[in-house]
Amino acid sequence: MVSLGNIKAAYNRIRKVIIQTPVMTSLTADRLTSCKIFFKCENFQRIGAFKFRGAYNAISQLTPKERKRGVIAHSSGNHAQAVALASQMLGVAATIVMPENSTHVKIAATKGYGAKIIFCKPEVDARAQEVQKLIKKHKYVLIHPYDDPRIIAGAGTAALELIKETGRIDAVFGPVGGGGLISGTAIATKGLCPNAKVFAVEPEQADDAYRSFTTGKLHSSVNPNTIADGLRTSLSDRTFSIIRQHVDEIITVGETEIVDAMKFLWERMKLVIEPSGAVPFAGLIKIKDQLVNQHIGIILSGGNVDLTQFFEQFRTQIKR
Predict the structure, then answer these.
(1) pTM value surpassing 0.85
(2) What is the domain class of 4-47+156-300 according to CATH?
(3) Which residues are catalytic?
């Protein structure tokens, strides 16, 4: 089990290479929710997402023999980039299995960090099967995107930084997909602020965590159709156990609510946030009447958005 001590140890291990991302505020967001909100901006982290924290923490602890074997990961994008960059910095060869429908910007960035990419069908089972086949053939070391205590501890350092900077906090909101980030966030939050509530937020169209939390039995999602591509994965036994112990409530939000939250963050705070990163703010907006006048932390998990079509509109105007 991951402890606050593990998260503090991870922070000491990675603090010289990560970016201590800013905590930003917005009077407009405060008025909208009747709360005092502190946004932890992991879109400014290396590779544009919190994932670098866990990846570097995990790979930096490999033995010399494990580093020589090389690492492998499966990811739709942010974990792929994080493992690729951390491996490059630590001199370790990296192979990444990515769904064939991963966004262009995440594929290009992963290649840019020197990783070898192997594509698979956009299904959780397909990812796992391809990874196991390659491990059997090449003896790679698996760096799992969330089902790894080193990954969870690294992810928890974002909340650790947030609370160290803001002091008192009444509640923290974070997104939940595979559960690594919310697990680390919950452990750090409950360890530093025992009375604070932890809210996990996920898309209604990928609500396996909500169903699992409600029934007490682990459920999975099969090819969920949500704009929040980073939250399409399902919980593991490990993350489900941590969530049941440390998370107070799981909230689901609709696709329109996600887009509206994302639009607010782009327009009013000038923060380029991907849909998965906007999900926790959408969750706060949904239950804001329950949290009036409270101090709220929100983990904005990442900002890797494919802006190709957006800029093509401007290029089209230039050609007129």
Answers:
(1) yes
(2) alpha beta
(3) 51, 301
